[in-house]
Amino acid sequence: MSKETIIIIDYGSGNLRSAAKAFEHMIAHDKVDAEVLISNKADDVLKADRIVLPGQGAFPDCMENLQATNGMIEALEQRVLKDGKPFLGICVGMQLLATRGLEYGITAGLNWVPGQVVPFNIDPALKIPQMGWNEVLMPISGGQDNHHPLLRSIKTSTESSEHYYFVHSFMFECEYNHHVLGLTDYGGLYASIVGRDNIVGVQFHPEKSQDAGLRLIGDFMAWKP
Question: For the CA atoms of the chain, what is the radius of gyration?
Answer without folding.
Answer: 16
